[in-house]
Write a structure and sequence with these properties.
Layout: H1 2-6, H2 13-21, H3 35-41, H4 51-68, H5 76-95, E1 111-113, E2 119-122, E3 146-151, E4 156-160, E5 167-177, E6 187-192, E7 200-207, E8 210-219, E9 227-232, E10 235-242, H6 245-251
Parallel strand pairs: 1-4
Antiparallel strand pairs: 1-2, 3-4, 5-8, 5-10, 6-7, 6-9, 7-8, 9-10
Helix pairs in contact: 3-4, 4-5
Length: about 250
């Protein structure tokens, strides 16, 4: 916990990394990402890779970026800030002792990111946002921004364009069947994801822990946690809860 408090000196390491790294460097994920590991070892981390090694590699990678970055345009306060950040990064990666953000998720500085993992700014905490939200984000990007994904584990909110909310597919779990006890792969159904939704024609497939839905055309408003109901004409086939996109791609 003491180390966790020390991290507050950085005012959220993710912001310091983004501010000093600039647009000429590889994008850094809001947690640790894989770019640092790939640059250092020439390949992505494999399942089972030691987490201490991953974090050490990332902190050393960021330290090198900050040391090589041109600081001529920084104010005295910003340059002092840079020195403090580098010192803490060096201390953490050389000692192999650093804050465990997974143990203290709510103490991580909450970040807005884009779909590439680039940090856009800070937010009030993920519980204050919903998928599809546009107003009340309190961030100026020079363009309309919508909440496209919420990642509670990292207190991260992803922003994107309205078109990013359109989905060709989704996963639905916690099924409750009505007309049948299940489906046959490829069954055609009208899928409704909102109360007043006219429905979208789709094909249903059995998947790992749920139903995979492939829409004929992009469906709007696909939001994890909402209900999805499948229809055969006027008959309800069944329904369930929409899962997060990350869950869909990891289980398909």
């Amino acid at each position: 916990m003491i180390i966790m408090r020390k991290l507050s000196v950085l005012i959220g390491i993710c912001f310091s990394i983004h501010f000093f790294a600039g647009s000429g460097t590889l994008p850094v994920n809001s947690v640790i990402g894989d770019n640092s590991f790939i640059v250092t070892f020439g390949h992505s981390p494999v399942p089972g890779t030691d987490e201490v090694l991953r974090i050490q590699t990332h902190l050393k990678f960021v330290e090198k970026i900050l040391e090589e970055k041109d600081v001529s345009g920084l104010s005295d306060i910003q340059q002092q800030r840079r020195i403090e950040v580098i010192a803490h990064l060096h201390q953490y990666w050389t000692a192999g002792i650093f804050p465990s953000n997974f143990d203290f998720p709510m103490e991580r500085r909450p970040c807005f990111i884009d779909k590439n993992g680039k940090i856009l700014g800070k937010h009030k905490g993920y519980p204050f946002y919903t998928i599809g939200q546009r107003k009340g984000l309190d961030i100026a990007l020079g363009r309309p921004a919508f909440v496209t994904q919420i990642i509670p584990e990292t207190n991260t909110v992803m922003l994107g364009e309205e078109s990013d909310l359109n989905k060709k597919e989704m996963k639905v779990a916690k099924m409750n069947w009505m007309k049948h006890d299940g489906i046959t792969d490829g069954m055609e159904a009208v899928t409704k994801i909102r109360y007043k939704d006219k429905g979208s024609l789709s094909n249903l497939y059995n998947g790992n822990g749920g139903i995979h839905v492939n829409f004929y055309e992009d469906a709007k408003g696909v939001a994890p946690g909402q209900s999805a109901v499948f229809y055969d004409g006027e008959d309800v086939i069944g329904g369930g809860i929409i899962q997060r996109a990350v869950d869909f791609f990891s289980n398909r």
